[in-house]
Amino acid sequence: MGPEPLRKKPRQSRSRALVASIFEAAGDLLGKRSENPADIPVQKIADRAGVGIGSVYDYFANGEEIWVGFVEWINERNFAALEQQTLGEGATFTERLPSLCDAALSLYLDAPGRTRGVIIAIVRLGWIQRTVLQRDRFAHLLAQKLGAEHPHVPLARLERLGEVLCDAIIGIVLGELWRERDEAARAEVRQLLKALVEREVAAALAG
To answer: Which of 53, 102, 144, 191 has the highest CB neighbour number within 10 Å of its CB?
Structure first.
């Protein structure tokens, strides 16, 4: 198991804003060049955030902890945005899930370098996969939401479902042929993703 993000929790609004500025800076650097996160010095992140390096080390022991926290932070933020975007797609989270996965696909395909950089980081760095619940914080948040509506289903099964759906989305995003396909082919891929979501969700809930 890798390091836990945040050596101390920011409790006041000022400290939360400082940590957010560190994550923003890290994301800007990651998205700008799609660099390997391990190659970005902590000093460079501090300079980008406009804070002293000592302030960074107040909350993170090293650069690896920054990236673990960053992945969790950006996925929670993205997840909240996707939930808000799909509120009209169904009465329950379970009903909205196919639309949420489609919106997630659009987010990762259409966003500038930062969001794509997160996916590249997840794929490149095995420690992120080990630390952030075996794939991505997104998968865990999805499982928690489904678990609230289906308390009889083991959470481990729902987490596995979240990982499968995340893998499907990431696989499409990283597919080099995506940008060469015409709109009809892209629409077909989206329909296949929707069918996969519906099938996997039904199987997970049925046990």
So the answer is: 102
